[in-house]
From TrEMBL:
Pfam families from the UniProt entry: Rce1-like
Entry keyword set: Hydrolase, Membrane, Metalloprotease, Protease, Transmembrane, Transmembrane helix
PANTHER family: CAAX AMINO TERMINAL PROTEASE, CAAX AMINO TERMINAL PROTEASE FAMILY PROTEIN
Domain of life assignment: Bacteria
Domain CAAX prenyl protease 2/Lysostaphin resistance protein A-like intervals: 166-252
Manganese listed as a keyword: no
Transmembrane residue ranges: 15-41, 62-87, 99-119, 168-195, 201-221, 233-261, 273-293
Descriptive protein name: CPBP family intramembrane metalloprotease
GO molecular function: metallopeptidase activity
Length: 314
């Protein structure tokens, strides 16, 4: 692992530069989206759709375009630009290597599904959280933002055909997983590992930023835990593809279940709160931990950058 870029720029300063690049990219994304939507339709369409005033199929298409240009592409551009141009360590900061044991992908699949009761319980706890009275204005703002995000999601995931579902799986499940993992588990987690010199702290900090980035307070805890899982998947294996696969499973499953519910193939609303029995929670925790231990042992054995105890080599 080369340390050329690391030796030239301290991790703390790397983080500040990374944030600055992200702000610039997001602003550029908004400006490009305004231009594209204005050329395709008109400026009023951009303003209307930005406020989630959707009147027909044209507005839905415009919303997809705005989402892609203002969010997805900037999130992809930031870590790629940072890794190749700023620190000049794409291998270390993007971790796109594919030389990892393929059985890890199978383990990730089972970990994601066996941990569902854990995530549901964290979600239930999160929904019951109430901020102190002096933070009521902040809580009200978060609830309003949550409603707006839910409305946008419902519009984007209104799927009339199987082809609509496939497109949503590819975009929400696949592309979103790629760009978010490159940014968080690729660049940011690497920065924090080098900054804190403690991979556990770096993984949890990155997971907290990942959850906060989605601006959905009442889903913070389950998304935090997902981020922790993704972080360890990458750290132990040395490859971003393990967390991309996990992220894809999480998002893609939600899209498919939403489609099935919309077409009355299943009766359970995937957005509803689900409660498992105590035995279900205990079973979920035990099996998930055992699978994680198995994943860790196989991943470390196949990752030349880690010692047997999981410590990263210099």
């Amino acid at each position: 692992m080369t340390d050329t870029g690391y030796s030239q720029m301290r991790p703390g300063f790397q983080f500040l530069v990374f944030i600055a690049i992200m702000v610039v990219m997001l602003v550029i994304g908004v400006l490009i989206a305004i231009g594209v939507i204005t050329l395709m339709y008109n400026f009023d369409t951009f303003m209307k759709v930005s406020q989630l005033q959707i009147d027909g199929p044209q507005d839905v298409r415009a919303l997809w375009i705005i989402q892609f240009i203002t969010t997805t592409m900037p999130i992809l551009a930031v870590p790629v630009f940072f890794a190749y141009v700023v620190v000049k360590e794409p291998e270390s900061y993007l971790k796109v290597k594919t030389g990892f044991p393929l059985q890890l992908l199978i383990l990730v699949f089972f970990i994601m599904f066996m941990s569902l009761p854990i995530m549901e319980q964290l979600s239930n706890i999160n929904e019951r959280l109430i901020l102190p009275p002096f933070l009521k204005n902040i809580e009200d703002w978060m609830r309003e933002h949550e409603k707006a995000a839910e409305k946008a999601t419902n519009i984007l995931l209104k799927m009339d055909t199987v082809w609509d579902m496939i497109k949503a799986v590819l975009f929400v499940g696949g592309l979103t997983a790629v760009v978010e993992e490159l940014m968080f588990r690729g660049a940011l987690q690497t920065i924090f590992i080098r900054w804190t010199k403690n991979h556990h702290a770096a993984i949890w900090i990155t997971a907290a930023l990942f959850s906060a980035f989605h601006m959905e307070f009442f889903g913070f805890l389950p998304r935090l835990m997902l981020g922790v899982f993704f972080g360890y998947f990458v750290y132990w294996s040395g490859s971003i593809w393990t967390s991309i696969w996990a992220h894809f499973i999480n998002n893609g499953t939600a899209v498919v279940l939403t489609y099935l519910y919309q077409h009355k193939t299943i009766k359970t609303n995937p957005d509803d709160t689900h409660v498992f029995s105590l035995l279900g929670y205990v079973f979920s925790i035990i099996i998930t931990v055992l699978l994680l231990i198995n994943y860790r042992n196989i991943a470390i054995a196949g990752n030349g950058n880690l010692t047997a105890d999981g410590t990263e080599l210099d």
